[in-house]
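Budget justification note: compute hours in this period were largely spent on complex prediction jobs such as the one shown. Inputs:
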Amino acid sequence: MSFPLRGHALYPAKGGAEMDIAQELLNGSRLALTRAITAIENEYDEATDIMKKIYPHTGNAFVLGITGPPGAGKSTLTDKLAREYRKQGKTVGIVAIDPTSPFSGGAILGDRIRMNGLTLDEGVFIRSMGTRGSLGGLSHKTADAVKAMDAFGKDIIFVETVGVGQSEVDIVKAADTTMVVLIPGMGDDIQAIKAGILEIGDVFTINKADHEGADRLVTELNMMLDLDGVMKDWRPPIQKVVANQGIGIQEVIAIIDKHHSYIKGNGQLAERRIKRTKDEMLDILNSRIGSYITEKIVDTGIIDDFVRDIKARKTDPYTVAAGIMHDILK
Amino acid sequence: MEKRIRVLVAKPGLDGHDRGAKVVARALRDAGFEVIYTGLRQTPEQIAEAALQEDVNVVAMSILSGAHSHLFPKVVNLLREKGMKDTLVIGGGVIPEDDIPALKEAGIAEVFTPGALTTDIVEFIKKNVK
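Corresponding output:
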């Protein structure tokens, strides 16, 4: 859908600003970047147009995923790593996700507290997002927010997940390199062989390594990684850090850089991005088809007739679904 | 997905008392708002820049040190300079009645003093956010 009058003084864009958000974002306006992310997150009508315009300018940033349990120090570590990259002259974007309450829909987004020192650095842009019902550790719109920062020209974009448990692994779909942050004292070695987040780490960091149990955790993780039967040419390194004191940060940077060159060199980065593009394409298509069905079948009340017949056992949901699909695809 | 009201809760200046700010942050969360909490001892520059990056609808500041007449208007000015024209700015804390007219003159939409109900703050935000 197009809105030829949008931008006219009488028809301001929904974001509240009368400007070509995409163009100004590409020109380097921080206001346009922040408005673009809001449009994306709230699914305003103009969001699709913005994404279309900025899309050709994406794909240049290196996306680093940071995940781990609540309280592991993800935000503190992100802050320290971002400072190091700034020292190297790289510009940084940070998308930090915190949980939305399933009861009120509200959220306390508190990751910035650990990053206050970065707020006034013009080379850094931090955006907090609530999960808004998404269960995989990110929000539905995280990937598009990352693209906005990418098109804006950020060299490296951190995606910090909510504090995760064992199965919130969406970050691997969004990041080039995934770092899992763990802390000692969270369980015995059985925890380490369970499936889930321990399988997705390209890099492991053990934060709060000055606490008791850090060495044992390293040993247990090593044992888990050794159980991987197939000899892989990338064995995820484990680095101990004390993030709030800046200990081990340089080492983590070196490992991240090494992984980046590794996946770049052997084609894995390209592969991951092709897979990501495919997933995105399918997500968009699925959501379009979903809205189309809602519009045609639910909003019109047609579904209620089907439901009545199904309830009376005159037909069944499988037959009805097949019929609807047949009609739609005609 | 519907628009969600985003509020930056900030503590400008040097006092270290954030119980009130945390109570308000929690009440706003329970009202369904997304609350970005930035912690203690923020400069007006930090608050305005964080408000821009987070594209908040509201900046809610709490201050107990007496520096409100200096710091609150400064945040309003910085926000407007950055192009955040519609951002609603509200204040709270130990603020003498006599100071409130000048604060409102400077662009602080409302000031909530001790004894204010969190429900009043929620209602005020819902009514006044553009």
